[in-house]
Amino acid sequence: MKVTYNEKDKLLTLQITEEIDHHYAEKIRTRADFEIQKYIPKKLVWDFANVSFMDSAGIGMILGRYKMITMFGGTMNMINVAPNVKKVFEMAGILKIIPIIEEIGGTEIGKCV
Amino acid sequence: MENVYENKMSLEFLSKSSNEAFARITVASFASQLDPSIEEISDIKTAVSEAVTNSIIHGYEDKIGIIKIECTLFANSIEIQITDKGKGIENIEKAKEPLYTSKPELERSGMGFTIMENFMDELKIESVVGVGTKVTMKKVIKDLKDSSE
């Protein structure tokens, strides 16, 4: 996972670099929890540009972090979500509470190639 | 009616979470003989991943057992059977309910069977408590090149 933090905007970007299943979700969760508690960001953006596969383990993993970030008064978004990953999120109705954004506004972070 | 199968394979592996990717990629690779679309392949991978994860987390819990996958290719469909000899499901109807999970502490979303049902064309769950669970799924591969039916 690639971690970027923008102090000015209190924006934490977590770029997932592996497929998300039950096996990898545990590793991603541990790392994400560490980074969230370290920075207490106002805004967390998950970058899915390198995620080619996700099953329902991703739903639980993202929702768990959402609970944590809202507890700290922060917001959460996702970016660069592939159609097959989006399909899994849609099935669980996640996109209504954690919307997909087109770009990370106001910063140079998140310009993914 | 299809009754003559074109190809068949079976696979056995230990119920370790590191095998989840291996299982779905192997099934997807076998299914590619039917020339499926990217979306169809992705649906198959997701459904297999859900079933295998269920066997690991719920079927065998923390013990290690054998998971067996049998795939049969027909002219325009694939049937995938995933079997474990784990603890079985007490109430299948309950387990199939969206968002129901017996393991919320593991951050399970309770969407596994819902995804299998929606991403595949057929889903059958057979389970006997103390004996094991068999999930049979079927996906029809639509032929985009030849639409004359």
Q: What is the largest interface, and how many residues per chain?
A: A-B, 23 and 27 residues
Q: What percentage of amino acids of chain B are in beta strands?
A: 25-35%
What is the number of E strands of chain B? Answer: 5
Task: Write down the CATH topology of chain B.
Answer: Heat Shock Protein 90
Task: Outline the low-pLDDT stretches of chain A.
Answer: 107-113
Percent range for helical residues of chain A? 25-40%
In terms of structural class, how would the helical and strand content of chain B be classed?
alpha+beta
Average pLDDT of chain A, to the nearest integer? 91
**What does the radius of gyration of chain B come to?**
15 Å
Helix content of chain B: 25-40%
The shape of chain A, in one word, is: globular
- Count of all domains of chain B: 1
* Anisotropy-based shape of chain B: globular
Relevant CATH superfamily of chain A: STAS domain
CATH architecture of chain A: 2-Layer Sandwich
Task: Please give the domain count of chain A.
Answer: 1
The order of strands across the largest sheet of chain A is 1-2-3-4-5
Figure out the total of helices of chain A: 3
CATH fold name of chain A: Transcription Regulator spoIIAA
Count of helices of chain B?
Answer: 4
Helices and strands in order:
The complex is a heterodimer of chains A (113) and B (149).
Chain A: E1 2-6, E2 11-15, H1 22-39, E3 43-47, H2 57-71, E4 75-79, H3 83-91, E5 100-101
Parallel strand pairs in A: 2-3, 3-4, 4-5
Antiparallel strand pairs in A: 1-2
Helix pairs in contact in A: 1-2
Chain B: E1 7-14, H1 20-31, H2 38-59, E2 66-73, E3 77-84, H3 92-96, H4 112-119, E4 122-128, E5 132-140
Antiparallel strand pairs in B: 1-2, 2-3, 3-5, 4-5
Helix pairs in contact in B: 1-2, 2-4
